Amino acid sequence: MLHPLNEGINRSLPTLLKTVILTTTMGQFPLTLSRFIAQEQATHAGATGELARLLAQVGLVGKLIAQDLRCAGLIDILGTTGGINVQGETVKKLDEIANETFLKAFHESGLVCAVASEEMENPVLFPERWPQAQYMLLFDPLDGSSNTDCNMPLGAIFSLVKFEREDRMPTDDDLVHKGTEQVAAGYLLFGSSTMLVYTVGQGVHGFTLEPGIGEYLLSHKQIRIPARGKVYSVNEGNNHKWTAGTKKYVDDLKNTDKARGKPYSVRYSGCLVADVHRILLGGGIYLYPGELDKPEGKLRLLYEANPLAWVVEQAGGKASTGTMRILDVEAKRLHQRVPLIIGSADDVRDAEEFIQSRR
Ligand code: AFP
Is the CB of 140 inside a 6 Å radius of any atom of ligand 1? Predict the structure, then answer.
C-alpha cells in the first residue's frame, strides 16, 4: 500500500503541502515560530516583543544560510578562502558567507548594539543602534564547517545577552560574560531538514523549517532529554591525548554490561550542533574533553559551550567541564576555550566521577 505522502506525488503541490503540514503536526493546525513566541510572551507581563523579533531574525538567518548550503555544490562557494581565522583554523568560504549573513541581518534588525563571532577576532559594535538596541549577540556562524565539502550536517549557534547600561556604549569587554547571564540561546541545524532550537529559560522548543511555505513550524515542544542514553559522541582519534580519567570513562562505556545498557554506541559527525542535537532528543553524552597538553580543550565558551549548555540544562540535562558546571565558568576572554561534557544528567555525572578520579 502506498504511504499517504507518496500518493501525494500525483496530487497538486498545495494539496501535498497541506498533507505534509497536517501529518507532521499530528493533525493539529501548525504553529509557526512567530505565533508560538507571541503566545509565550503574552503570558509575561512587561515583555516588549524584542526577544521575539531577535529569534525571528535568527530564523531568517537560518533560511538564508540553508539556501546557500542547498546549492553549495553547484556554485563556487565550497572550499577555503585561503585565510586563517583567529582560532588558527582554515576559513571556509561558507564560514565567511554565514558570518556576513549574521552580521548584516542583525545590523539591519536594529535590535543589537554589539555582536561577536567565532570568525572575527574582535566584536563589532553598532554605535548607531545604541541606546535603543539593548541586546548583544554572540554566534558561531557555521559549526562543523569541515562538513561543508561533503554534504554532511552543519549548524550555527547563538547566544543573546542584555546590555542594560544607559550611560555608555558597550565595549569589547561587555560581550565577555558568564553563561548564567544569557537571555536567549540556541542553534540552527542544517541537516536533512533545517531546524531552529532555542530556550529563553522556560524549556526548550524545536521548530522545523517547512521549505514549501518558508515558515518554521513547531515540531518539538518542551524537549526533555532522557536521564540516561545509550550513545556517546567523542573524537576517539584523540584518545592518546586524554587524561587517565577520560580514557577510563570512555573505556567503561564500551564494556559489556547489559543491565546498565552497555556497551554504548558511538555517533560522531564532526558537527557539535548535530551531535548534541541527537543527544538532546535521544539521550547520551557528548565529550570534547580537556587534553594533556591542552587542558582547556577545543570548544569556545561564549558562543559554543554556554548556549548549548543552557539548552541542555533547560531540557533536564547537564553540561560540565568535568569539574564544574559550564554556566558557572568565569568568562575572561572572548575566544576562551573550555572542555565540554554535555548530555543526559546521569551520563554526565558518571563522566565527572571518572574524570575527577572518584571511580
Ligand atoms: P568549527 O565551528 O570551526 O567548524 O568547529 C567544529 C568543531 O568545533 C565542532 O563542531 C566539532 O564538534 C569539533 O570541532 C570537531 O572537532 P574535531 O575534528 O577535533 O573532532
Answer: yes
